[in-house]
Amino acid sequence: MFYWPVSIYYEDTDAGGVVYHANYLKFFERARTEWLKTMGIGQNALLAQDIGFVVSHADINFRRPAKFEQALEVVSSISSLKRASLTFNQRLLDAAGQCYCEAEITIACVQLSCMKPHAIPLFIVQEFESAR
Q1: Is 14 an active-site residue?
Q2: Are 12 and 20 in contact (CB under 8 A)?
């Protein structure tokens, strides 16, 4: 599992003072990116090799509204690791463990020049397998 703190800023909220629904996906994206960074995986190096990761599916459930100035945490884990894709389970929680939003997000590895599936590089597979 990977834990990444989220502070809710004014810019994250809508006119009602709650987090705008699309921003939950941004929080989850940032947590996945930070997880890669902690494993020493630089996305610029992958881009130089014409390899990228794209979201191919997202199933998201909004449980309760997150609000301005809350301190929350994204908890991420991997539920499936395949040749050219991996699926993350991600939850946005408060310190008491209450869930504000949860999602299952599938990421596909692609060759960017043609946007076709590409095997996830072995060193990345090994890092995620060791984290499971």
Answers
A1: yes
A2: yes
